[in-house]
Write a structure and sequence with these properties.
The protein is about 60% helix and about 10% strand. The protein is built from eight helices and four strands, in the order H-H-H-H-H-H-H-E-E-H-E-E. It has a four-stranded antiparallel sheet with strand order 2-1-3-4, with helices on one face. Belongs to the ABC transporter superfamily. ABCB family. Multidrug resistance exporter (TC 3.A.1.201) subfamily.
């Protein structure tokens, strides 16, 4: 709506009095350039804000999924402090976002400078070129109205920037090809299983937390028929061993064997 108002205002201005519209045209280009710069900076800031929100969201997600563990170890304060620290990044980029938006709204004041120039030039046209005062006033009014409409339209760029940023993440998920294909029917099927399991020099970190290494050069032999207990603090890798054995994930390094055969050579459905 605002863009249509803007362009139609200048079309009307050129039709009625092209000289006056031509004088105001450079300022229009300045407004457009400011709008493009604003949208570009805003898109970068929105991406950064969303990235920071994701960090905070991960903390909340982990805390809620392990809420019994958090409660039993009295970790509520630690979790809340971590969440608060993660939100500081959002605050920093949010303030920058507000500053850019404020500067852009302020730059919309150029339209009043244009109006002042038009008023001066309009007087010259009336005095020396026999242009009618009504025509001059109409052209000046529509140009000013068009400029204000364009400035109002810029305020909506924020929502488009947020939508584009969200789209990138959504498309990232949609286009992602999983390394482990659960529908793949290729691979060996063992006719008989005794149940010997071995972890050999296994290194692993979850894809969502690549900087947090869970297992490093981990070795373990589990003979068939033995009952084995895995004991350790939270996030020490107890449930990770089961997840790796079931091939929900593949190790970054090392191998896992079932009866002497690497499990990534076995048919996943069968495993």
């Amino acid at each position: 709506m605002n863009l249509t108002t803007f362009f139609m205002a200048y079309i009307v201005a050129f039709v009625l009095l092209w000289r006056m519209a031509l004088v105001g045209l450079p300022f229009v280009l300045l407004l457009i350039i400011l709008g493009l710069i604003y949208s570009r900076i805003l898109m970068v800031l929105v991406r950064k804000v969303m990235h920071e929100y994701n960090k905070a969201g991960n903390i909340v997600e982990q805390a809620i999924s392990s809420i019994r563990m958090v409660y039993s170890f009295v970790g509520e304060s630690k979790t809340m402090n971590g969440f608060s620290v993660a939100l500081k990044g959002c605050l920093k980029y949010g303030l920058k976002q507000g500053l850019v938006k404020g500067v852009t709204i302020g730059s919309n004041g150029i339209t009043f400078a244009v109006w002042a120039l038009m008023a001066w030039y309009a007087g010259r046209l009336v005095m020396y070129y026999d242009v009618k005062g009504g025509t001059v006033f109409t052209v000046g009014t529509v140009m000013n109205h068009g400029g204000i409409a364009f400035g109002s339209g810029l305020l909506n760029v924020k929502y488009f920037a947020e939508a584009f940023s969200a789209r990138e993440r959504i498309m990232e998920v949609i286009k992602k090809v999983p390394k482990i294909d659960s529908d793949n029917m290729e691979g060996e099927i063992l006719q008989s299983v005794s149940g010997d399991v071995e972890f050999k020099n296994v290194k692993f970190a979850y894809p969502s937390r690549p900087e947090n290494t869970i297992l490093e050069a981990f070795c373990l032999k589990l003979p068939a028929g033995k009952t084995v207990t895995s004991v350790g603090r939270s996030d020490s890798g107890k449930s990770t061993l089961i997840a790796l054995l079931q091939r929900f994930y593949d190790p970054l390094e090392g191998e896992i064997f079932l009866d002497g055969i690497t499990i990534n050579k076995l048919q996943l459905k069968w495993l």
